[in-house]
UniProtKB/TrEMBL annotation:
Homodimer or homotetramer. It comes from Anaeromyxobacter paludicola. Belongs to the phosphofructokinase type A (PFKA) family. Mixed-substrate PFK group III subfamily. The record marks 103 as: Important for catalytic activity and substrate specificity. PANTHER family: ATP-DEPENDENT 6-PHOSPHOFRUCTOKINASE 3 (PTHR13697:SF52), PHOSPHOFRUCTOKINASE (PTHR13697). It comes from the Bacteria. The active site is at residue 126. Substrate binds at residues 124-126, 161, 168-170, 221, 265, 271-274. Its cofactor is Mg(2+). Keywords: Cytoplasm, Glycolysis, Kinase, Magnesium, Metal-binding, Transferase. The keyword Kinase applies. Its EC number is 2.7.1.90. This is Pyrophosphate--fructose 6-phosphate 1-phosphotransferase. Gene3D superfamilies: 3.40.50.450, Phosphofructokinase domain (3.40.50.460).
Length: 341
């Protein structure tokens, strides 16, 4: 069987580990692989190349993706689905391994419903994909953000400042919550809970009253001011209808300084969180996902995604994987809130 592999959406540490594992395991099953360049765009443009064991050698520790990626949605292009099907047929590609998050796998689900043999691997730094306990790339992002928060503590304390650290997280605040807890943040703000500016200021002032003249505030990029009073987003949309985010840290810093009188600065980690080498955990998790995805193809269990449940890798339907978002557990947030202020 000839199988296409593609990576879609934002790049993510561990992608190359998955690609390597799919090819290595798949070749043991007698499968032949084609690498699709730049996600679904490559199938639209008939842009691909032969993937072999030698081609994936030495990529385990590398960040990014050797296949390239994009946020292309073929269902938003005129005749897009038909062009994808034509590419698959013309090149005798009998199955597709799609590595991505809710958008990439949502497209995979649509093609599966059209008869394409598809399996998925869960990839999203935000860890917001349902059907799996954790996605690869998340641990790397949390590790990087935690190190940044550790470093911000010393400079904030030296200057008696508040520092607002903005991390990734469009719909879910997993990175903010985990890195904030691990880094000892004084306030953690997530998309699941609207921001009460007065409450944030009260936490900061409570610390000052106890002689703690600095504070670290960690905020997810998708967090919103309560009641939508402040517009902080660029309204430009991508092909999946998502608003391009950015700016919440600057709004927060200005409001905190106005309400507390304490000098406030911002740090936006941005793409630093998903660049560079993956952690050991993400390399191992990505490898396990890749091996399982190749086994799904061998067993012709199409329409499924590799998922982590507890410590086991299992198959779940693409429908289940893309049905809902995996949001922060309120009980875990309440644990973090014990240390606010």
């Amino acid at each position: 069987m000839k199988v296409a592999i593609l990576t879609g959406g934002g790049d993510c540490p561990g992608l190359n580990a998955v690609i390597r594992a799919v090819v290595r395991r798949g070749e043991q099953h007698g499968l032949e692989f084609t690498g699709v360049r730049d996600g679904w765009r490559g199938l639209l443009a008939n842009d691909h190349f032969r993937l072999t064991r030698d081609a994936v050698s030495g990529i385990l520790h590398l960040g990014g993706t050797i296949l390239g990626t994009s946020r292309t949605n073929p269902f938003k292009s005129e005749g897009g689905p038909e062009r994808v099907l034509e590419t698959l047929e013309r090149n005798h590609l009998q199955a597709v391994v799609a590595i991505g998050g809710e958008d990439t796998l949502g497209v995979a689900k649509k093609f599966f419903d059209m008869g394409v043999k598809v399996v998925g691997c869960p990839k999203t730094i935000d860890n917001d994909l349902s059907g799996t306990d954790y996605t690869f790339g998340f641990d790397t992002a949390v590790t990087i953000a935690t190190e940044a928060i550790d470093r911000l503590h010393t400079t904030a304390e030296a200057h008696s400042r508040v520092i607002v650290c903005e991390v990734m997280g469009r719909h879910a605040g997993h990175i903010a919550l985990h890195s904030g807890m691990a880094g000892g943040a004084d306030v953690i703000l997530i998309p699941e809970r609207p921001i009460d500016l007065d409450e944030v200021a009260a936490h900061v002032l409570a610390r000052q009253a106890r002689g703690r003249r600095f504070s670290i505030v960690v905020v997810a990029e998708g967090a919103q001011i309560q009641r939508g009073k402040d517009e902080v987003q660029d309204r430009e949309l991508d092909q999946f209808g998502h608003v391009r985010l950015g700016g919440i840290a600057n709004v927060l810093a200005a409001e905190i300084e106005k309400r507390t009188g304490i000098e406030t600065r911002t740090t936006v980690l941005g793409h630093i969180q998903r660049g560079g080498s993956p952690t050991a955990r993400d390399r191992v998790l990505g490898t396990r996902y890749g091996v399982f995805a190749a086994d799904l193809v061998r067993d012709r269990r199409f329409g499924q995604m590799a998922a982590l449940r507890g410590d086991a890798i299992v198959g779940v339907s693409l429908e289940e994987a893309t049905r809902d978002l995996h949001l922060v557990d309120p009980a875990l947030y309440d644990v973090a809130a014990v240390f606010f202020g």
